[in-house]
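In the previous chapter we treated chains in isolation. Here, by contrast, the input contains two separate entities that must be folded as one system, with a combined length of 582 residues.
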Amino acid sequence: MLLLPSLFVFKGGYLQEVTGYVYLFLIQGYVAWFLFFKSGQPFFGYSVTMAIGAYATIVLTEMFQWPLFASIFIGAVLATVIAVLMFLSTSRARGFYVSMASFLLAILFPKLIEALQPITGGRSGLYFGGLTALVGYKTLYLLVIFLTAAIVAFFLWIMGTKTGRILTLISENDRLTQTVGLNTRKYKILAYSIAGFISGFGGALYVNYTGFISSVDIEVFTTLYIFFIPLIGGSKVFYGPVLGALFVILIPELLVPVERYLRIFFGLIFILVIVLLPEGLAPNIQKLLRKMNPKRA
Amino acid sequence: MILNGIITGLIMGGILSLPVLGVAVIYGITGIPNFAIGVIGVFGGFLTWYFLSFNMGIAILVGVVFCFAIGYIIQRILLTPISERGGDSTLFFIITVSLGFVFEGLMRAIFPRPSISLALPRIGTINIAGVTVEGFKIFALLFALGTLVIIRLLEEHTEIGKSWQATSQNLKLAKLIGIKTNRVFSIASGIGCALACVGAIFWGSLYNLNLMTGWDLGFLGFIIAVVGGIGNIWGGIISALIMGMVMSFSGYLLGGMWQSVILYFIVILVLIVAPKGILGSERSL
């Protein structure tokens, strides 16, 4: 299913561009799936880690003439540092306050980018040749598909390991996990590091693919859309975020003719899904398929 | 310049304290963090603008009553049922932001202009130690402080206020002694949205209102309430005034671009250092 849209690469054009976005946001969606839903860490700063990866890549290559791959790597490392710092600094607070601290960071960051306009370009943004100039658009598109698949596979693999099972345990009962003698802090730092690194890397990939980033692309709604990807798709099953990303990125494309009403539809759909399908789309689609095809069930 | 900064800060803080009060009333009574009240309030501000040429008093009334009704209805049909099913803060955060999307979209669809400014009478000028201030700004500040006092008095000296307190302190007991808690919740939500609307009307006549102002007012209202200790009304007002000063002085010293950067930075620091807010809160998130 994940590889299906690679067919578009031969047709190119509009569909290819849109499906590219689906992949790039799918990476972020899986980060949210891993950190928030699977490891139970109340983090809302996905647009921040993504933006740090993206801006670090551009600023280091364009202004400091660093090699591209080194810049991408440093961007991902910086995003890791910010995610872990966010965790360490809010470790005294609990629950919703932690979510709020990272959410406020997501509000703050685009404003900081605008205030630092001489370096970051602010609202007018920065253009970037990057990998597109190096390998061409089509190759990069295939690379994005490949990397997305690899990242998803990595997340699935890690949730199956002992570390993954401990993270699941932490998300279900933090106290109990501590009581049985596990160093939960260590595992949480690990979870934030993985999430920060992949989100930062995904951000770097994003800016290489789109060739442009501005403060508008990383405003606070981006973090919400990323969070909605696993929430809408369904966080219990591994392919939930795929459905969520298709939904969050493709629905706006379908609604372009009635763009004026986009936010109304979006808001209503989110509310309806959360109220009527608290488990997300995936389990319900499963049920529907079973009903349509009772023999297989 | 310092005095000018202080006065500007006090007025900004005073206006901001209205949505802060809205957040605090709703959170204090229903326990729900509502991120949509800013957008709903600005929707009311747009309504007021729409009817302003007709009659000022009626226009303001239309906006405020509409916001009260919206607050009442969303609490009744959406938020209370979810709360009864055991929704947590994160869920309410997501739901109320989605509600905000709906109202922002409605604003975009209904009103002919995306950015407006309300022409309300300026009520002359007043001279304070050599600094000239518009009477309207002083009125806005006094109105905000007056509203706070009225809500406090209502809460402590009337039957309705006591039922609010009972509901926020012990829901089961309040239900048991026959308080219609669902109605209390809905009214609290309505009042919160109406306060946000008044805040938006003042904001719209001193600065301007656009499609994003609602989010700014809502998020600012929420974070200022958090800094004051969410649900703690006095803390909310004090932190609104302090934050008004912070905005005013960072605007003077560093330029408008840095205003909100500094503001959000301070709030994140407060969350890290004193997660319960500067004056603490009886309820915790």
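Chain B has one domain: 2-121+142-273. The domain at 2-121+142-273 of chain B is CATH 1.10.3470 (ABC transporter involved in vitamin B12 uptake, BtuC). Compare these points with the single-chain example from earlier in the chapter.
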